[in-house]
Amino acid sequence: MKLRFEKNSVRFRLRKSDVEQLIHQGFIIDSVAFPATTFTYELHISDVVRDPVATIVDNKLIANLPVGLATEWINTEEVGIYHVMHLSNDQTLEIVVEKDFPCKHDPEEVKKDTFTELAGKNEIC
Fold it and tell me: pTM of the entire structure?
C-alpha cells in the first residue's frame, strides 16, 4: 500500500495483493520507521461509518471506509473512492483510495501486482 500526502489530502494506492488482504482481513496496516518513532497507516472497512473518515492519533493514521462503498469499489472496475471530509475548523480533508497502476520504472514482477487492465495505455505513478 502506498500513501501520499498533498495539501489537505491523503491518498492510499492499493495493489492487487492489498485489495485481497482488505477483502479477507477487513484492513491493511503498513508503517514507516523514523529515527525516534514509527508512523503507522491503516485502511479499514467499517460497518459503523457512513462516509470515509480519517484521523491521526499517536503517530497512527487510521482511515475507515463504509462496507457498501468499499464492496462496490472492490467488485467493479471503479478506480477510486473520492471523499471530502469536513473538519471542525472550516477546512476539508480529501480522502482518496485508488487501485494502483503500473509505473514505467517498476520491474515486471511489481507491475503484475497492479491494475494494468484498468490503466489502459497510460502508465502513471
Answer: 0.85
- From residue 52, give the alpha-carbon distance in Å to each of 58, 104, 106, 116: 20, 31, 30, 26
- Domain borders along the chain are 2-118
Residue bearing cell 525516534? 36
- For helices 67-74 and 16-25, the axis angle rounded to 10 degrees is 140
**What is the pLDDT averaged over residues 18-44?**
97
Host H or E run for residue 18: helix 16-25
Burial class, 88, CB count within 10 angstroms (exposed 0-12 / middle 13-18 / buried 19+): exposed
The number of CA neighbours under 13 Å toward the Cβ of 18 is 24
Query: Rounded to an integer, what is the distance from CA 74 to the centroid of its chain?
Result: 12
pLDDT of residue 111: 65
Count Cα atoms within 13 angstroms, Cβ side, for 103.
9
